[in-house]
Amino acid sequence: MIPFMRPASLFPLFAPIESLRGVGDRLAPILQRHVGRRVRDLVLLRPSAILVRSETRIADLVEGDVVILTVRIVNHLPPRRPRQPWRIQIADETGQMDLLFFKGYGAHLTERHPLGAIRVISGKVERNGGEWRIAHPDYILPGARRTEIALKEPVYPATAGLTSRNLARLVRQALEAAPQLAEWQDTAWISRQGWPSWRIAIARLHTPDGPEAITPQAPERRRLAYDELLAHQLALGERRGIQKRVPAPAIPRSSLADRIVSALPFPLTRAQVEARESISRDLESGERMTRLLQGDVGSGKTLVALLAIADSVAAGRQAALMAPTEILARQHFETLAAPLAAHGVRSALFTGRLRGAAREAQVAALRSGEIKVAIGTHALFQDDIVFDGLALTVIDEQHRFGVSDRVRLQGKGEGVHLLAMSATPIPRTLELTLYGDLDVSRLYEKPPGRRPIVTRASPMSRLGEIESRLSGAVKRGEQAFWICPLVAESEKVDLAAAAARYAALERRLGDRVGLIHGRLPNSEKDDVMGRFVSGQIAVLVATTVVEVGVNVPAATIMIIEQAERFGLAQLHQLRGRVGRGARPSSCVLLHASPLGEAARRRLEVLRRTEDGFEIAELDLELRGGGDPLGLAQSGFPDYRLADPIAHRDLILAAADDARLILARDPHLETPRGEALRTLRALFDWRGGSIERAD
User: Fold this and answer.
1) H-assigned helices in 452-521
2) What are the pLDDT digits (tens) for 173-222?
3) Under DSSP, is residue 34 helix (H, G, I), strand (E, B) or coil?
4) Which domains does the chain have, with CATH numbers?
5) N or C terminus of the chain with fewer C-beta within 10 Å?
């Protein structure tokens, strides 16, 4: 592991933020919450906009412009009634206008700005009827102080008690502490890109000369984004190297796994065979496997995991599979236990519901090695869960678990192999930022026999017709999901919409309808889902905040209300909850009318393809930014300067660069390596944990 020591050159940047002039007991806590605890955090705080002012005359004003005017104070007009503003009439040689001040500034204003005084005014111009005015101007200064008003000014994200202008003042002070640093980028690379040095780039970031200078594609922004991405990729690469160097039990490919494959009613897909080969090579290597198995919904990830589990058991070791919810854990148990039992391998389910003598017996059987495969939830973390030779951990829906969770389960054995699984297809570039410390296998095909899901879009005006068809399907023994819209960024509002839809369907279908949402206690949620899986409930109404990814082969209909409100990848994930049985399945995308162009394109993509990886790439193109694929909830890196959408090309380049650097200089001991240590320390990416220090 490359030792982490902060270079002395960075000490000024890592001084406490309260060491800056003007940061006292009141301001320090606000800055610490809003920006960070170090001077460095202000240096890396990028402007959110640029304010461009124009010097002009009253006769030439344009509504909405931010202007600078040199004027004379003509009159003070106090308010006649409460809530009216104090007005100052001002004039130049071309016309007259008003300045408005609310909340009783009167005496102060008359004293500071007497009649006849020359003032320089700056603010945003508004028109009220035929009159020009500026409400609460940014500046109203004596004419001699004109140079204090900048024509271009960066705008920073303000918060209560901290204005953009105060932030700008502190950023300028923090920049004084930013040193000249040895170049860590390849000189030929930065020359080809036309990028400035780090010190010049950071200075330009805070002194933009126009709106284009604060876009993600500005040269200084791309330079700084690449710095951050390279620092992160180096940390991921180092962590990957650490994992690879851990000795682990060599687990050969087994005849047990081959017999399980032979008993299948269908052959493995080509992608499953390729993933199986990669996993086998990892398990046989004698080094710890850290592999991600990424596949679309229904692509057969669990079967590939079963074969790795079988290899581990055949080698005389144990395996564990952990899922984020009890329902998913139970589903895995029901899928895996039977084929393993057919070959004399005992499995057991460990969840929070397992208590008393039954639990004690299972824990004892696991400790003795009688139980070879443990399947469960976070209950597997409990101290008394002890294995007799754990060799493999499988983590399902791995984005729902933190790195510490993975390490904790692996800590139940020595050199335990890791196979993580994810059903969220993401583009290759974003995969590098999320899973750069893991080897990745992709399942890009669906097993034979999987029926395509017929997807159609329908306007909300046909809601009654959809409900009638749903009623007929329920009478035929089919089951359906009805997903309610994301009404607002408020679970309370979303829940009200779901409750209303539930009530409407209950009037039509009676007690065959169930409702599930994020505010239900886990026990009630599991009960509703259990009754849906068993068929007691025919239609499950759900908000989007709940996990509905259980296997319900009888569910053949997915109805998504106001589908235009959802992201493309989210729609695809929801659609994948049906089409798991032998009967034809369908997905209905109910939408408002008329549809906007972006929403129309999203729904058209869903109708055209079921390829999750293609959809993920198109989602990036259509959305362009924000939080595609819900990555903010998936452990996505908290970048300061890099935009994973706008800088996708830089992610690929940084990943390649980091691999080459670590291959040639694994301990960063060359002159460039020393500079890269400074880069990594600047962004605080630690290779051992991929976490920031503060």
Assistant:
1) 463-475, 491-509
2) 999 999 999 999 999 999 999 999 999 999 999 999 989 999 999 999 99
3) helix
4) 8-50+157-214 (no CATH), 54-149 (2.40.50.140), 255-443 (3.40.50.300), 453-609 (3.40.50.300)
5) C
